[in-house]
TrEMBL record:
Belongs to the ELO family. One of its GO terms (cellular component) is endoplasmic reticulum membrane. Residues 265-289 are annotated as: Disordered. The gene is LOC112465454. It comes from the Eukaryota. Its EC number is 2.3.1.199. The chain crosses the membrane at residues 27-46, 66-82, 117-135, 142-161, 173-193, 205-223, 235-254. Its main location: membrane. GO terms for biological process: fatty acid elongation, monounsaturated fatty acid; fatty acid elongation, polyunsaturated fatty acid; fatty acid elongation, saturated fatty acid; sphingolipid biosynthetic process; very long-chain fatty acid biosynthetic process. The lineage of its organism: Eukaryota, Metazoa, Ecdysozoa, Arthropoda, Hexapoda. It is a multi-pass membrane protein. This is Elongation of very long chain fatty acids protein. GO terms for molecular function: fatty acid elongase activity. InterPro entries: ELO_fam.
Length: 324
């Protein structure tokens, strides 16, 4: 048993020390995966269990001003990260078909590696999105999608920075930072107050944009299964399957949040119309026949002269709507 443990430990140390990118080994949080894993697990526990329990008997915090500044910071930071991904390669230097990792100390290669590390750090900053929900007691917003998405991303990106901080896999961050510029701009506008709400009709298109992003990442990653490229296949599967998972999670959220809501609203309208029709029919039945047939007992009968011929005829006078 001791020999097996020793074998596993030696394999782990060889992977961390010899198979990873030596340029990043001394960077913060890059020595091993366990600090990142611990933070991610505590995040999930806090937002699902501990946080709601602590807020149970407290009033929700008013964080509107804090959220405005936070979202503004995220817009600026995401814009900087997007610019770094462009300058580091995706602005024309990288190939969208096959881009190996440059492990040299070339300034452009180092710029992409540093940008990848800051992108990793940004995934921890995004925990704040959920913490705001907890402090504002918006527990219904803390969905499975939300927790999985935010909880998995730091761990997922850690492997990319540790082993492939550049090249093909950074396409994910390139797209994701662009999406986050738009997303946090929306959150910033929403935090400004209800007077802005009429101009935020495009909320559901953010989810659509997220799904398009994951489809592009899937296609971009899995193409290397059919192309000879000097890029580790393990990361092709790692990134591609993450994109598949997130695509279906976001699609399920979209169906729940928008399609089913639209069907529910349409069903409610049909029920209202049916109720109105029933009320109309009941009114007809109370005052007359449903098919419009006239019955004598619905009218007062009287005898009178209706012509100059001297003939006496019985006529019906409409009595509906009149009290006796």
């Amino acid at each position: 048993m001791a020999q097996l443990v020793r074998l596993i430990y030696d394999g782990y140390r060889d992977l961390m020390d010899n198979k990873s990118d030596p340029r990043v080994n001394d960077w913060s949080m890059m020595s091993g995966p366990f600090p990142t894993l611990a933070i991610c697990l505590f995040y999930a526990y806090f937002v699902k269990v501990l946080g709601p329990k602590l807020m149970e008997n407290r009033k929700p915090f008013d964080l509107r001003k804090v959220m405005i500044w936070y979202n503004l910071f995220q817009v600026i930071f995401s814009t900087w990260l997007f610019n770094e991904s462009l300058a580091g390669g995706w602005g024309g230097h990288y190939s969208f078909r096959c881009q190996p990792v440059d492990y040299s100390n070339d300034p452009m290669a180092l710029r992409m590696a540093r940008g990848s590390w800051w992108y990793y750090i940004s995934k921890f900053m995004e925990f704040t999105d959920t913490i705001f929900f907890v402090l504002r007691k918006k527990n219904d917003h803390i969905t499975t999608l939300h927790v999985i998405h935010h909880g998995c991303m730091p761990m997922s990106v850690w492997f990319g920075v540790k082993f492939t901080p550049g090249g093909h896999s950074t396409f994910f961050g390139f797209l994701n930072t662009f999406v986050h510029i738009i997303m946090y701009s929306y959150y910033l506008l929403a935090a400004l107050g209800p007077q802005i709400q009429p101009y935020l009709w495009w909320k559901k298109y953010l989810t659509t944009l997220q799904m398009i992003q994951f489809v592009l990442v899937m296609v971009h990653a899995f193409q290397l299964l059919f192309i000879d490229c000097n890029y580790p296949k393990a990361f092709v599967w790692w990134i591609g399957m993450h994109a598949v998972m997130f695509y279906f999670l976001f699609r399920n959220f979209y169906n729940e949040a928008y399609k089913k809501k639209r069907l529910k609203d349409a069903s409610g309208k049909q029920k209202d119309d049916k109720k109105e029709q029933n009320e109309h029919r009941n009114g007809i039945k109370e005052n007359g026949n449903e098919n419009g047939v006239i019955y004598a007992n619905q009218y007062k009968m009287a005898t009178g002269y209706i012509s100059d011929s001297g003939l006496r005829n019985r006529v019906f006078i409409d009595n509906r709507g009149f009290d006796e």
